[in-house]
Amino acid sequence: MRSMTRPAAACETSGATLSAAGRSRCARRDGFTLIELLLVLAVLTVLAGLTLPAMARWQRGSEVNQAASEFRDELLRQRVLAIREAYSVTVEIPDNNSQYRVLTTDSLGTVIGDEIRHLPSGILFERGPELGSITFHADGTASDAALLLDDQHGNRASINVDRLTGSVRSREGDLR
Asked: Using alpha carbons only, how large is the chain's radius of gyration in Å?
């Protein structure tokens, strides 16, 4: 709290003495006036009104970024499996879908694993016409790939696979 005192000049009258009521008005006051409190509340309300919509957009965008990060990690795990076990791992990605298929084959082409997995709820793949699958080979190479993950709010994140190195990168943010 702040203390306020009125200057002596404001409490002096032109030679007249102040009554008891006048002296009490010139006494020291502690606290804030109602107008000051209402003004602070109005400023805080305006600031909250400006920041809440931006925070909601940021949170929606973070969901697709999290899904992209998780899918990138899944692709990296499949690449490590292909190198370590000398397998070929193919991740089939249907367009505008939230599921993908992981198909693992040995060096003779025998299917070792076939599994359907899902992206988090509300997140979909959006792939280009050239992409239907990503294959990781035992030598560390992969098929060249670029795909987008979308949510229902239009937020996007991209995932790119380099064919020579097999490296997987994700780029987050608004990629419209």
From this structure: 33
Tens of pLDDT, residues 40-59: 999 999 998 888 887 777 66
Is residue 93 scored above 70 in pLDDT?
Answer: yes
Domains with residue ranges and CATH for the chain? 49-172 (3.55.40.10)
Residues with Cβ within 8 Å of 34's Cβ and at least 6 positions away in sequence, in order, are: none
Question: What is the edge-to-edge ordering of all strands in the sheet holding 111-118?
Answer: 111-118, 99-105, 88-92, 133-136
| Encoded amino acid at 50, one letter | L
What backbone phi and psi angles, to 5 degrees, belong to 157? -145, 145
Q: Is the dihedral of CA 81, 83, 86, 92 positive or negative?
A: positive
Q: Is the pTM of this model over 0.70?
A: no
